[in-house]
Amino acid sequence: MKFSVKSGTPEQQRSACVIAGVFEKRRLSDAAQRLDEASGGLLGEVVRRGDMDGRPGQVLLLPAVAGIAAQRVLLVGCGPERELADSRYRKIVRKAALTLNETGAMEAASYLAELPVTGRHLHWKVRQVVETTAQALYRFEQFKSKPENASRPLRRMTLMVTDRQALAEGKRALAEGEAIAAGQRLARDLGNTPANICTPAWLARQAASLAKSQPSITHKVLEEKEMGKMGMGALLSVARGSRQPAKLIILEYKGAKRGDRPVVLVGKGVTFDSGGISIKPSAAMDEMKYDMCGAASVLGVFRALSELRLPLNVVGLIPATENLPGGNASKPGDIVTSLSGQTIEILNTDAEGRLILCDALTYAERYRPEVIIDIATLTGACVIALGHQASAVLGNHPPLVHDLIRAGNESGDRAWELPLWEEYQEQLKSNFADMANVGGRPAGTITAACFLARFTEKQRWAHLDIAGTAWRSGEKKSATGRPVALLTQYLLDRTSR
Ligand code: BES
Ligand code: MN
Ligand code: ZN
Questions:
Q1: Does the domain spanning 181-495 belong to CATH 3.40.630.10?
Q2: Could you say which of 354, 414, 454, 482 is catalytic?
Q3: How far is the CA of 210 from the centre of ligand 3 (A)?
Q4: Which side of the chain, N or C, has fewer Cβ within a 10 Å radius?
């Protein structure tokens, strides 16, 4: 998809399709009004006849309207004008994109960025149109022997703004939207790639090719031997049951002065989570290929970041491994020593995410980070607590948690805080080691974060549990690219203060 920004009147756009909104009940938006006048009242008539009353998501395609330069007019219902807020706006934009994709129009001029959205400016709307449209048209067909795409897919969209002054603002927003969309696409592609291909070594190669294509990014990979020498006993204990060697992938983005403390992003990269000896039930186990979506989001953010040339230093750490029940696998009751020196009794080998993250979090300290954020499909309990709408955020530094929630609200990729109170730490007591790796069924997302907190005490740190948001199940099974938008927004916000 190619996007551009332009100013001009709707009736004069020589486009395959011009898109305009209609409010409930039967109220034309500004652009629709102009089209109505140019067409001698046709739109008003269509609306009066009841073919389009403006309900949200309703669409009506009018071919070859006399008096209008475009080949088609697509009217999109927007609901009551005063109720148009974030999520309905995205729904309208998504609907327009999907409808167009099924028509013959491969290109369109959209006036949807002109719509009044409660509390939102042009910048936000342009970004949302770009991100939402790109997301809606995303397909993962690398492994289909014949593509199932639309025969004449939507390829280009021009976002129309009211005047020349709005052009500059629109163009800046477009660049941000495109960078985030590219990051989301990368994260989705990596997530959707099956685990027989997406192994730790393959992930490391993807990081290498990203670094190769972006001069501002460098990369390095630590092998098992080096990790062993350093003492990453927790991380390595997870890899024991697999034939695939674990990798610690390190990405560095340098956009600021050398001495500027970096933001460190740590992404869980379990390329397949069978549960290990504490093996999972087989229903939907295929979805555990998505257990590297934290890692994928880190790579996606690096993609967006380098495209935007943000003046920041950012480090990405990706502990990558499979979790399989091989003959050498960790057993319930095994005790391992983490890089921090703390010992861990592995009571459940399926709580492997925290074991690889804790060593990566300790390793992160050597970068003297400004803040550390880890991103992980960490607990099934998170899906129970927050569903698929919000990621969970927990941390030891309230301003950081606040900034992440704010970035989620702004980007539409939202997170909600769960408490990280001292009282929950009790659940991690072990009779034989410094801690157990599980805290029982109650508050599973919180006790997982409590475990990680023991490795970040000296740092400003937050944890995003994306178990419910990183992919969709069922008929529309696919990685979502979350939380690339949230994290990129957080980094954008850091540059403007
Ligand atoms: N990757 C899973 C978490 C997960 C499960 C995410 C289902 C999305 C859907 C993680 O490694 C895991 O298995 N967690 C266990 C922890 C438990 C053993 C304390 C879980 O959530 O069941
Ligand atoms: Mn697991
Ligand atoms: Zn897992």
A1: yes
A2: 354
A3: 25
A4: C
